[in-house]
Amino acid sequence: MRTGIRWLLRVLVLLVLSVAFGTFIPRPLIAPVKASSAAATHRILLLSGPIHTDIAIPLDEETRAAFSFLDDPGFPLGHPNAEWLIVGWGGRSFYLETPTWGELKPLPVLRALTIDRSVMHVDLAGHITEPQPSIAAFDIGGDQMRRLRNFISDSFVRDTGVVAPISDAGYGEIDRFFEAKGYFNALFGCNTWTAAALRSAGLRTGLWNPFPQSLRLSMSVYN
């Protein structure tokens, strides 16, 4: 019994140290050349929940054109009141089957802790009020914005150039799920995908950010 407790404590200490190092060691190690304030013309948002993060990008003409493959009557990308495209990546089972904490089930949790196929989640939002505790905003330039759009677009699985929607999957009337590239696991999950997306936009994150809290902290330290 005592041996088991000691091993558990060692694992917990190792996890805490790994998260700490992953938060405070920057990635990339050398800061990229920053765009001038005049060139940072695009504002993006990091949206944080208890265990998951999303990215919101402004729905300007370039974004609507880049993601025109999402536009359909059920997902009105060109709606005049839509100001933000919200995107996230995550484990298929947990993402699809746990819209609220009250619907938490053992099997999706088990798959999230081991390995699972991944999905993309997209939604639309109107005006988002800032500041909020769960929102962090960053201003980036046009080239950085294009790289971010490309990173997100390249995360969708395509069959002969067409994205693969998941039928009858969504939390509300507008949001949609699509098949995504890569596999989800507890070490490299939704928040590490978000961190990689932000790095594609020229921002710095921690070396390893498995939790929203560590990602937000590293972003605040290095950007």
Amount of beta strand: 25-35%
Tell me the Rg in angstroms: 18 Å
**Strand-pairing-aware structural class:** alpha+beta
Instruction: Flag low-confidence runs.
Output: none
Query: Major sheet: order of its strands?
Result: 6-2-3-4-5-9
Average pLDDT across residues?
Answer: 88
Shape: globular
- The H-and-E topology, N to C, reads as HEEEHEHHEEHEEEHEH
Strand runs, count:
10
Proportion in helices: 25-40%
Q: Summarize the main sheet.
A: 6 strands, antiparallel
How many DSSP H or I helices? 7
Q: State the separation between the terminal residues, measured CA to CA.
A: 46 Å
Overview of this structure, please?
- The structure is a single chain.
- With 223 residues, this protein is an alpha+beta fold.
- The chain has 7 helices and 10 strands.
- It has helices spanning 2-24, 61-66, 92-97, 106-113, 142-154, 190-200, 212-222, and strands at residues 26-27, 42-48, 53-58, 84-91, 115-125, 135-140, 158-159, 162-163, 176-185, 205-206.
- Helices cover 35% and strands 25% of the residues.
- A hairpin with a 4-residue loop joins strand 2 (42-48) and strand 3.
- Helix 5 packs antiparallel against helix 6.
- Strands 6-2-3-4-5-9 form a 6-stranded antiparallel beta sheet. Strands 1-10 form a two-stranded antiparallel sheet.
